[in-house]
Amino acid sequence: xxxxxxxxxxxxxxxxxxxxxxxxKDVVDLVKSPKPWQQVAAVPAFPAEKLPDQLLARGGRIVLxxxxxxxxxxxxxxxxxxxxxxxxxxxxxxxxxPYEAAGDPETFESxxxxxxxxxxxxxxxxxxxxxxxxxxxxLRYLVVDVIAAPRTRFSITRAEVIAQSSAGxxxxxxxxxxxxxxxxxxxxxxxxxRNCMQNFPxxxxxxxxxxxxxxxxxxxxxNHVTFRRYDQFxxxxxxxxxxxxxxxxxxxxxxxxxxxxxxxxxxDYSLIFSRLLLEHCxxxxxWELGDELFEAAEKQLDFFRAGLDENLGFHxxxxxxxxxHCQELDRTAPMVCAAIWSAETLAELAGQLNxxxxxxxxxxxxxxxxxxxxxxxxxxxxxGMLRSGYERQLSWASQIWGTxxxxxxxxxARAALAGLPKMPDAIGxxxxxxxxxxxxxxxxxxxxxxxxxxxxxxxxxMIRHGADTFWEAYKEGDDFYTPYGDDPRNNSACHAWSAxxxxxxxxxx
Amino acid sequence: xxxxxxxxxxxxxxxxxxxxxxxxKDVVDLVKSPKPWQQVAAVPAFPAEKLPDQLLARGGRIVLxxxxxxxxxxxxxxxxxxxxxxxxxxxxxxxxxPYEAAGDPETFESxxxxxxxxxxxxxxxxxxxxxxxxxxxxLRYLVVDVIAAPRTRFSITRAEVIAQSSAGxxxxxxxxxxxxxxxxxxxxxxxxxRNCMQNFPxxxxxxxxxxxxxxxxxxxxxNHVTFRRYDQFxxxxxxxxxxxxxxxxxxxxxxxxxxxxxxxxxxDYSLIFSRLLLEHCxxxxxWELGDELFEAAEKQLDFFRAGLDENLGFHxxxxxxxxxHCQELDRTAPMVCAAIWSAETLAELAGQLNxxxxxxxxxxxxxxxxxxxxxxxxxxxxxGMLRSGYERQLSWASQIWGTxxxxxxxxxARAALAGLPKMPDAIGxxxxxxxxxxxxxxxxxxxxxxxxxxxxxxxxxMIRHGADTFWEAYKEGDDFYTPYGDDPRNNSACHAWSAxxxxxxxxxx
Lengths: 509, 509
Prior knowledge:
The structure is a homodimer of 509-residue chains.
Chain A: H1 3-12, E1 18-23, E2 26-32, E3 40-47, E4 61-79, E5 88-95, H2 98-102, E6 118-124, E7 129-132, E8 137-148, E9 155-165, H3 180-196, E10 211-212, H4 213-225, H5 230-241, E11 253-255, E12 261-264, H6 267-284, H7 288-305, H8 332-352, H9 357-378, E13 379-380, E14 385-388, E15 393-394, H10 396-404, H11 410-419, H12 432-445, H13 448-464, H14 501-506
Antiparallel strand pairs in A: 1-9, 2-3, 2-4, 4-7, 4-8, 4-9, 5-6, 5-8, 10-11, 11-12, 13-14, 14-15
C-alpha cells in the first residue's frame, strides 16, 4: 500500500461544498427553570422578521434561533437611521444548545479548552454594514451582546446563516412506514450526518472537526440510506490508509493541518477499519478499494495479537483502548470481541475478493480460537452473560460486543441485551457510540423490538429534550454529563457517532 | 456653489493608500509605577526576533512594541510543532499608549464608548496560520492574551503591522537648524500627520476617524512643510463645501457613511473655513478653488452676525461654539475675534482674487467695527488683556484670539501672552488645539522666543513622556485628563490638531 498515493487520491476527492441561506426564524428568550433539559429553554419571543424594529443600545442582548442546527457562517446586516457617532461593538456566541447559549464564555474553565466555544467580537465604525463572520460555526442559536453602541442606537436588519455541507441542504424524504416520533428521529439523524459532511466527514462540526475512524464507520451506515455520497467515504478511508504509522497501524483520527497525519491510535478503532472497508465496498458496489486495502486492514490484527498470552488471554498491550468514554470500564472482553469481529469481517471480505481458501480459513480459525478462549474464560453460565478481566466485571459493552462477535449465541444475546437494564451494577453505556453498538447487537441477534424501543427511548429522549441533531454525549437523566472535565459546553451536540438510528429504521425488513 | 459637484470632485481625489510592513520591534513588559506618564511604562523585555522561541500556553500574555505608532492592520503568524488538539483563542488589544495597553477593556465604562477601543478576538482551529485582522488600528503596542491554547502550546513566529498612509512611509528629512529635542518634536508632528492621512485627512486614526474642519486647517499647515499633498486638502475642502446645510453653513465635520454628510455645526469652525481656503490657495499656488468657494466662505459671517446686537455685542446664537474643550470657558470674546480674523482673511482672499474694492473694503470695515466694539467692551487697560462676556472672564483663549484678530496690538499681545502663565486664575488651555493657536498668536505678534519655549515645554513634554505622535488631549501635570467622561483611554494619542509645531519650526525666518 502506497501511503502517498492514498493521500493523493483522497485529495482528488475533495468535495464541492453546497451552500444555502437560512434566515433567523425567531428571537428567543433563554429562560432558566428546573424543567427543561439542562435547565434552560429557548422560548420564542417574536418572529425574526420584526428584528429591524428593535433599536439596540449598549447592554442590549438579542438571541436568535435559526430554527434548526446548521453549519456555516453567520451574516448580519446592521443599520441605523443616518450615521453613528461612535462604533458598534458586539460580542457573538454561536451555540448548538440553549445551555451553551445561556452561559458566559468567561466562566468556561475546564476540560478541552475555551477554544472550542464559538465566540467572536466585531467592531463596526460605519453603518449600514453587512458582516460575514470568518468562522464556520455549528449553531442553532446566536447570542448577540451589544458592548458598545452609538447614542442613536442601531438595529439588526438581517441575520442569516450561510449554511454548508458536501451533501447539500435537502434531507431524505421521511419514512412512510414509521410514525411521527420515528420520523423525527430519522430526520435528526440525517441532519446530523448532513452537518458533519464538510470538507470530509467530520466527527462533529463544532468539535473536533476531525476525521475519526470510529465515527466514519457509523456515518457510512447512515450515508448508505440517505445521501449515498460514497466518494466522501472513500476519501475518508484513503486519508486513514494514507496516515498509518511506521508499523502499519491505521490511526484513529486524521488531522489535516499542516498536512494530513494520524493523531491518535486506538486499537479497537484500528480493528474496525476492516468493517468500514467491507461495508463501503458492499454499499458502493465497488470492490477495488477493498482489494487495495485488504492487507492494511488485516495488518491491524497483529496489534491485537501483541496483547495475547499463550492461552489467548488478552492483556492491555499499551496505547489507547476506547470502546466507550468510561474510565471504570474493563475493556478486555470487548477488545477480544472486536478482534473476533474484525477477523470474521476480513474472512468475509477475503471471500468477496476471491482470496485463497487458505487465507479465508486462517482468518476464521483465528476468530474461532479467540471466541472459544474468551467463552471459556469469561462466560458466566449462571447469568448467561460475559464478564471481563481479572475482576470479572459485568458491563453492557461486553454483552454488546459478545453478541457481535458471536461469543454469545443469538438466544443468549437476546436474553442478555434485554436483561441489562435490570442489572444496575452492570457498567452502563456513557455515549451514543456504545449505544449504537447496542442497536447493532440487537439487529445481529434478531431483537428488533428491543432495538425499536431503545431508539424510541434513548434517541427519542434527545428529541424530547429539544434536539434536532444528535449529541456526542447523552446519559439519560444526567443533564450535565460530559466526558471532558465538568463543563457540558465541551460537548458536541451534532455528532456523527450518534446519527445511526435512521440506518436501522431504513434497513428494517 | 454646487454641492453635488463638490462631492463628485472630492470623490475623484480619493488617494491611493501606500502600504509598508513594520515588524514588531520588542516584546515589552507593562510596568506600573508612580513615575512614568499615566503610571505605566513599556519596558523592553527581549527583541521580537526571539518571539518564535516563546511557547505560549493558556493564560499567557505577550505585549509587542512596533517601535513607533502606526496605522494599519495587524498580521500574525502562529505555529506549533506539528498539530494542535484544540483551538487557539486570542484576545487582541491595539494601543497607542502603554496605559491603554495595560487596561482591561471590560472595565471601560464611560465617555465616548468602548466601541473606540481597538479589540478583537480570534479563534484558530489549525496551525500554522497567518492572520490579518480585518481592522485598521492606530497602535504602537499590541497586547496578545492567550485565552485558550492546545496542550502542545504554540508560538507567534511573526508579528507585523501592514501600515498605511496616503502620504507614504517616509517622514521629511530632519531640520538642520534645530537641536535633537526640536528634531524629535518635528518628527513626531510629521508622523502624526502621516498617520492621519488616510482615505482623507482624519482628525485621529483611532478616534474619530472623521474629517473635522478644525483639524483640517491645522494639518494643512503641516502638510505644506512636509508631504505637500495639496490634492488631499482640496479633497477635504470639497467634502466640507459639499456638505453645507440648507442655510449654507459649512459643517464642522463630515461623516462618510452611508454617504458624505455634515454631522456637526460649530460656528468658530465655520468661520475658520475662509482661512483654510486662503492658505490652501497660497500653499498650492492654485487660486481657482478660492474663487469657486469664496462666497460659501463669506456666507459663514452671516451665522456670526445673527448673534450680534445693535451695539455689536455678541450673544450665543444657539448651536455649538468650540474654541477649546473647556466647559467653563466664556467664548464671547474669542468668537468675535474669530469672526474678525475671518473677515480679514476674506478681505485678503478677495484681494488675491481681484474682487472689487467695494467687496474688500466692506469686509475690512466689518472687521474694524467688530474689533473696535470688542476693544471698547472687553479690554482691561489695567491688565492689558481682553476679558470675555458678562462675567468679564479672563482666559488664555481671549488673549490668543485677540492677538490673531488684532484687537490687541503686537506689543500688548506679546505682554499678554507672556504674562498668562503667571496668572493662575486665567482659564487655561485644555487641548493642543488651543495651544496651537497660542503658537500662532506668538508668531503673529513676533514672540518667537515664547513660541520656541512653548514648543519645547509643551510638545517636548509629550516627547519626554514617551510620545512619538502628538496627542488629542494633554494637560501638563494631569496624567489622566480626558475631555470625555473619566477614562483617558477615550483619548486619541495621534491627533491632527496637535501636529503643528513643525510648521512653526520649518517656517521660522
